[in-house]
Amino acid sequence: MKEGKGALILHSIFWATIVIIAVVIVITTSSGITLKREFISFGVFGILNISLFYINYIFLIPELIKRRKKYWLYVFAFFLMIAVFALIKTVIAVLYPADMMMVRGKAAEYNVNEYYAGKAFVGGFFMISSCIIRFTIDWFASERIQRNLESERREMELQFLKSQLNPHFLFNSLNNIYSLAYQKSDKTADAIMKLSEIMRYMIYESNTPTVALSKEVDYLTSYIELQKIRFKDGAYIELTLNGEIDNQKIVPLMLISFVENAFKHGVVTDPEEPVKINIIANQKILHFSVVNKKNQQNKDAQGGVGLTNVERRLQLVYPDRYKLNVVNSATHYTCELMIDI
C-alpha cells in the first residue's frame, strides 16, 4: 500500500525521538563508555531494532493480519521475533562481556538472564511501536478512502439527479412548444429561442458546483418568460428580489422545480391571485418562497420528479443547512426554502 506524506512524517517523528533518547543516554552516562560499546549498542543493535520494527511493519502485519487473517500465527511470530532478536543481542554481548555486560553508568555487571530480559523488553517496545504506527496509518488511510468514496458517491448521485432534472424540464417545455406549434401561434419561434437560451445555461453554465445567484435568477426569469408565451390570456407572476443577489452562490438548478411546480399544478392566469415568487439573500441566508393558487381541476397531486429530486439534492449538498417547508392547503400551495449559504 502506497503511503503518503503523513506516514513519512509519523515515521520521522518516531525515529527522531529514539535518536534523541539515545543521545541523552550517552551524554548523561559518565562511566562505562567505550567506542566498541557505543558502536555495538547504537550501530549493530540499532540496525537490529530497525529491522525488527520494519519486518513487523512491512511483512508480518500486512501478510498475517491484513491478507491472511492468521491472528494466532501472528501472535506466535510476534513473540518469536522478540525472542530471536533478544537472543542475537545477548550472544553478541556475551562475546564482548567487558563492554556489553556492564550496567551503563554503574559499577555492576549483568548476568545473562537479566541482559536477555532487558533486550526482550526493548524488542517488545519496537514491535508494539511498529503495530501502533502501522494501525494508525492504516486507520487514517481507510478513513481517507471512505471519505473519497462517499464524496464520489455523492457526486454520482448528484449527477444522476441532475440528469433526471434536465430531461424532465425539457419534456415539459417541448410539450408547451408543441401546443403552440399545433395552434400555429406566432409565439412558437420566440419560445424555441427562449428554450435554447435556457438549455445553454443548463448544459454549459451549470456544470460547476456553484453558480452566482444572479445567474440562477436570470435562468428562473427566462423560464417564466418561456412559460408566459404559451398562455393566450396572460400569466401573472410576481417575482420579488431583495438583498445581495449578485454576491451569493448557490448550487445550480436548485430553485427551478418549485417554480415549475407552480406552473404545472397551479393557477397562473388569475390577475387577482398571481404566483408570488420571493427571493431574499444576505451574507448567510437565502430565503426563497413560491405561493400559488391551486388548480382544482388538476387532480395530478404528485410532485413528479422535480420536488422529490430537489429535496434529495438539498440533503446531499446542504446537509443540516437548509429548511424546507411545504404547505398544501385547500386553496393554495406554498413552498418555503431557507438555505445557509
Automatic annotation (TrEMBL):
Record protein name field: Histidine kinase
Gene Ontology CC annotations of this record: membrane
Transmembrane residue ranges: 7-27, 39-59, 71-96, 116-137
Location of the Signal transduction histidine kinase internal region domain: 156-233
Record keyword Transferase present: yes
This protein's UniProt keywords: Kinase, Membrane, Transferase, Transmembrane, Transmembrane helix
InterPro entries: Bact_2-comp_sensor_kinase (IPR050640), HATPase_C_sf (IPR036890), Sig_transdc_His_kin_internal (IPR010559)
GO molecular function, a single term: phosphorelay sensor kinase activity
Pfam families: His_kinase
Isomerase as UniProt keyword: no
